[in-house]
Amino acid sequence: MMDELELLKRDWQKKDKQLPQLSFDEIYKMIWKKSSSVVKWIFFISIMEFLVPHLIYLVPSMSKNLAVWKDLGLGNILVISNVVQYSVVLFFIFQFYKRYREISTLDNAKKLMSNILKTRKTVKYYVIFCLSLIFISFIVMAVGIYLNEDPMTALGYGYKAENINPDKLKTTLVATVVVLGVVVTLVMGCIYFLLYGILLKKLNKNYKELKEMDI
Amino acid sequence: MTKDLEHQFVTELECNQNIVHKVCTLYTNDRDSHNDLFQEITIQLWKAYPKFRGESKFSTWMYRVALNTAITLYRKSKKSIPTQDYESVMFKITADEYDPTEEQQLKLMYNAVKQLGDVDKALVFLYLEDKDYREIAETLGISEVNARVKMNRIKNKLKTILNP
Asked: Where in chain B is the domain with CATH 1.10.1740.10?
């Protein structure tokens, strides 16, 4: 094997003449092209993750939901949870920016990978936080419906359900909200895991390989 | 000022472009991916260039950024089969005197190296470029002893690929 590798080495070092040669202008044009590196994608997707949940609130039907919360007597809880949410979001944005700055191609391969994965972890915690928040808000809404005298009116439906047993109606509503909460949380979680699973598959594999070497 | 920097960078890269081409040869299978990776490495080099203070040689610095890009940052856009045309250019054996056994052996070796994982390829690349274990270890972020151990394992892996 040694001989074969030495043979390869000798051949490899003679290869220079066969390699393509780019001109000054060709290289010059390249430095202004856009990068497609993994880090860039992680950065974009993370920014989206920060923005999308907030944009949803701007959709008209969602603003109407705010009124529902008030009618259910949960207005105060909403204000408090918003304050908490935004301070946590700000904290995460700061953390994420700090991590992103740490990524440098001048580090050795292992450190570079570890920094990218650390950035990833920061976003992961943020997403877990958001998912829990979504789920908890559904639960709080369910509790609100349960405690409310007239949930149908509070939910914005003008008509009275006369032929239906109010207790039964209430149970159905609560169950629906809880199920919806679980489904929404799961779907969001799946999208998130798929996105990063694909993006970081190669990186994770290579990092594990390097890490195992040093144990 | 920026113009000067651009000019300086492109001139240096033009002189040392073989290093990048060699990394691309090892990590890609067709001409499109080769050019794609070359471009990505060029962008990463340019982005890091203001931080390059000339503490090390331009070429040494290039090895690091080029390999980092190939192993960590670059995502293959598609799985591609090597095209005949590309193969004949990139893997033409350069044996001085024509020796069919040697040529066959080299061809098999190149194919075997191509089948290794990303990190293993980086080690083999630095080895073929005649770098010592200290430099290999430093570039990858493992200890020198581990670089040696790993290189031995790679040799065994190559043996298995060649003699299944």
From this structure: 1-92
CATH fold group of domain B93-164: Arc Repressor Mutant, subunit A (1.10.10)
- For A112, the domain range is 36-213
Structural domain total, chain A = 1
- B155, A36: Cβ pair inside 8 Å? no
pLDDT by residue (tens digit) across B76-103? 655 555 565 666 656 666 555 556 777 7
Q: Which member of B40, B64, B128 has the closest CB to residue A37?
A: B40
- Which of chain B's residues have a Cβ under 8 Å away from the Cβ of A21? 17
Asked if B120 contacts A212 with a C-beta cutoff of 8 angstroms, the reply is no
Residue of A nearest to B159 (CA): A1
For residue B138, give the chain A residue with the closest CA: A108
Q: How far apart are CA A116 and CA A46, in angstroms?
A: 13
- Report whether CATH 1.10.1740.10 matches the domain B1-92: yes
ipTM for the complex?
0.78
Model-level pTM? 0.78
Between helix B118-128 and helix A166-213 the angle, nearest 10°, is 20
Smallest Cα–Cα separation from A173: which of A208, A145, A144? A145
